[in-house]
C-alpha cells in the first residue's frame, strides 16, 4: 500500500493534492518500467473496462508495451481529482523496436494521446477505463 494511505482505512480524508502526488508516484514507477513498484499501486482484482481484469494482466500488458517500446514514457498533460476518482490526460511516446500486438518492429517513433479514469481505494487502483491502442496501432501499421 502506498505510504499516503498507510494510516487510513480507505480514501477518507485524502485531499486532492495527496491523490495527485500519489498519481505522480505511480506515473514515475511506470516511466521507470518497474513492474514490482507498479504492482504496489494496483489492487489484485482490479477491474479494467474491455480488458482482462487483475493485476497480473495489467502487468503483462505493460511488459508487452515496454518490450515493444523500450524507451516508452508518459507525460502528464492534465489531471483531475474528485473524491476517489482520478482522470488523466497523458501523452505516451516511444520507439517501436519490438513486436506489438502482432505488428513487427517498425523503428517508428510514436506519440499518442491517452485518456484514463481510475478509481482508487486504499492506495490502489481498483477500477480503470481508458483509451484503446487504436491511435498507437495506426502509427505503426504497415
Structure description:
The protein is of the alpha+beta class and 142 residues long. The chain contains 4 helices and 5 strands; from the N terminus they run ααβαββββα. It has helices at residues 16-31, 35-39, 55-68, 134-140, and strands spanning 42-48, 73-82, 85-95, 109-121, 124-130. The chain has a 5-stranded mixed β-sheet with strand order 1-5-4-3-2. A hairpin with a 2-residue loop joins strand 4 (109-121) and strand 5. The radius of gyration is 15 Å and the shape is globular. The protein starts with 15 loop residues before the first helix and ends with a helix. The mean pLDDT is 92.
Notable traits:
30% helix; globular; alpha+beta; 142 residues
List the helices and strands and how they pair.
Elements lengths: L15 H16 L3 H5 L2 E7 L6 H14 L4 E10 L2 E11 L13 E13 L2 E7 L3 H7 L2
Parallel strand pairs: 1-5
Antiparallel strand pairs: 2-3, 3-4, 4-5
